Amino acid sequence: NLKSKTAVVTGSTSGIGLAIARAFAKEGASIVINGLGAPDEIEKARAGIESEFGVKAVYSPADMTKPDQIEEMVRLGETTFGSVDILVNNAGIQFVSPIEDFPVEKWDQIIAINLNSAFHSIRAAVPGMKARKWGRIINTASAHSLVASPYKAAYVAAKHGITGLTKTVALELATHGITVNCISPGYVWTPLVEKQIPDTMKARGLTKEQVINDVMLEAQPTKQFVTVDQVAALAVFLSSDAASQITGANLSMDGGWTAK
Ligand code: NAD
């Protein structure tokens, strides 16, 4: 179990991140949750983690586009709980558009949240992990870290970047008891996926049912969505001692998508 550990999970007010934060809490870890949303809903998620799993949880409002706030988030974990042992870079957004219409500010925002934020948080968390000779860094990448889909230029570029960052840092930290990996889910049913349906309908001229069956699940040979709890279970495994020799890896959980 993870009783003596602290986990920081970015983008954990919703979807995959929330499931990962709750899974670590179930293992006894202290938790720093982070992400956007209505204050009462965030407080409900935070308090729920404490009451359901009997652990401590604090909320960091850090905006993943702001390097100084990202560093503050890591420091909040260290000052509140004494260490940040597990760092999950999970915050992410999507935007779907043909390249020639892709808004420049959306490109910049996606690269900032989906890629740059991981650099800033890793940079802040590594000295403490090195000092304690133990750490787990887990980046939520995507099947789009391995293959592309049209109209997702920024997202695919950022996710391919995350795997490069993961491999590089894994090599740098290999002898320090710190593993660095990414998890690459296929389509997971979360608000992020739900929200991109209208834009994909528009970009491809399809109905909602066609987007779900012919675009999303078309990519996934199992014809099923991945669940947030399945992704969280892999994150917990990567944090165990059994996974100490898994580093620099990009672990797919995509119903066979990238086998094609
Ligand atoms: P989600 O929309 O449910 O959650 C995203 C989280 O990121 C939320 O907590 C949100 O508040 C947070 N966030 C967004 N912008 C932020 C910012 N500027 N600062 C701080 N937090 C911010 O989406 P999800 O599907 O759970 O996605 C989580 C991760 O999983 C993302 O990196 C996404 O790319 C990846 N992913 C998702 C799928 C999928 O099918 N859902 C597949 C592969 C990879």
From TrEMBL:
Listed Pfam families: adh_short_C2
PROSITE patterns: ADH_SHORT (PS00061)
GO BP annotations listed: monocarboxylic acid metabolic process
GO molecular function, one term: 3-hydroxybutyrate dehydrogenase activity
NCBIfam families documented for this protein: PHB_DH, PRK12429.1
Family: Belongs to the short-chain dehydrogenases/reductases (SDR) family.
Protein name: 3-hydroxybutyrate dehydrogenase
Organism: Microvirga aerophila
Phylogenetic lineage: Bacteria, Pseudomonadati, Pseudomonadota, Alphaproteobacteria, Hyphomicrobiales
